[in-house]
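Homework help board

Subject: predicted structure for assignment chain

Our instructor gave us this sequence and asked us to write out the predicted structure in token form, then describe one feature. I got the tokens but I'm not sure how to describe them. Can anyone check?
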Amino acid sequence: LVLCLIVYISGVGVVIAGVSTTSIAFTLLFSPFGTLIRYILSQYNGLYSTFPIGTFLVNVVGSMILIGIYILKTISVSGSVPCAVLVGLADGFCGCLTTISTFAMELSLLPVRSSYIYCLASICMSQFLGMLIAGTWAW
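My token output:
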């Protein structure tokens, strides 16, 4: 956290990532909430030995939130602060809520058949719900 604050204060993030300091501030603000929710839901991973339900839920929910943010950014958000809030939610909250590293680790630890089921369920559910949300918006 201290390192994040140093990056924010120094403005290095603006130079390296090309994002505003306001976006960085909102990212830092929303990150702990994504981490906390991820930790709480990870407690449910032991319910089924062949399907990490907690990780499945955070990844699917995180994908849905990201789709909602994308839609909001494309249709109705104007001004630098509202955009910075959406960037903070996407990068901070969703970035900490969802991670590919945990997904990949769990795939490698599961039996092969369970790994395929978990992988396909995660990808298909996220894609299906994403198309449903985006399609409803576009329609």
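Reply (TA_rk): Your tokens look well-formed. For the description, you could write something like this. Residues 112-138 form the longest helix (27 residues). That's the kind of observation they're looking for.
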